[in-house]
Amino acid sequence: MNVFKFFCLIVLLGCQFSAHAERIKDISMVEGVRSNQLVGYGLVVGLPGTGEQSKFTQQSFKGMLSNFGITLPANLSPKIKNVAAVAVHAELPAFRKPGQTIDITVSSIGSAGSLRGGTLIQTFLKGVDGNVYAIAQGSLIVGGLGAEGLDGSKVVINTPTVGRIPNGATVERAVKSPFMQSDYITFNLNRPDFTTAKRLESTINDLVGPNSAQAIDAASIRVIAPRDASQRVSYLSTLENLEFTPADNAAKIIVNSRTGTIVIGKNVKLQPAAITHGGLTVTITEQQNVSQPNALSEGETAVTNQSIIDVNQDDSRAFVFNPGVSLDDLVRAINEVGAAPGDLMAILEALKEAGAINGQLVVI
């Protein structure tokens, strides 16, 4: 079984399953419950000669020493090869409290060759408002490796200029959450859909009572919630585990022209159409012939190139689609023709141009 037939089989098997129930927590997020991005600038020290000597690194190094009461002459440029300037970033999850830790990522922003073996010195991580929310420090874990020879040859495995520090930052300030500042809880759907929003609204109202939930638009469902913190947590715990059946996705065909990936939604239908598909294959090969002179002649051995061109016209086949043909019939018909993914892209684009596809054709 070739790759394309295997792809068709997987699609056909997937179409046999109808929509199933999902938990509210799996397809939506609670408004206001979100992570926040933190970023900082710092120095990594202790590198085995893989650091850098840029001006901003030297300036940062002098600033670090001045914090410890050491002042270098203004005209002195320290020769440092074991220090690198880095950007540090992290995600501060919702409800993370002071004293708890978060993971951080450290990336070189200069010409350092590698951060392997380095240690991040105390770095302040700030939010978008400019306040410090965490302080990072620790030894880096670097998955990459780089090596360079005296002749300039170089070998790099993965990325040696980026590292991680698990639990490398300590939270110093909590982010205020609007979770308790309203009489409502709002669920925002990960994939906005009017039908899904209406079904979620009905599911909550069936449990809590009429008019407890209200679909604001295709993405948001607002639910009345108690003000008491303990009651609100228990209330949300009950709601987010409710199961209901979301609406089917819109009929779409996704085509990735770079990788040859084609995904066809199960709701795609075809209008009456007739398709013929054929291909012309041209193969060009180069062959070298050696010409030997006669034994008594004074000629020289010569090598000549000969081009062989072979043209092969594939058999063309035609198939007809009746009104309302489903994905199953489409895949089976194309599989019988034996079209490769590239040919299938051309067939789908032609069908869309002819107005024979009930659905969106998205090329990425």
UniProtKB/TrEMBL annotation:
Keywords: Bacterial flagellum, Cell projection, Cilium, Flagellum, Signal. It comes from the Bacteria. One of its GO terms (cellular component) is bacterial-type flagellum basal body. Residues 1-21 form the signal peptide. One of its GO terms (biological process) is archaeal or bacterial-type flagellum-dependent cell motility. It is found in: Bacterial flagellum basal body. Pfam families: FlgI. InterPro entries: Flag_FlgI. Coiled coil: none annotated. Assembles around the rod to form the L-ring and probably protects the motor/basal body from shearing forces during rotation. The basal body constitutes a major portion of the flagellar organelle and consists of four rings (L,P,S, and M) mounted on a central rod. NCBIfam families: PRK05303.1. Belongs to the FlgI family. This is Flagellar P-ring protein. It comes from Pseudoalteromonas fuliginea. The gene is flgI.
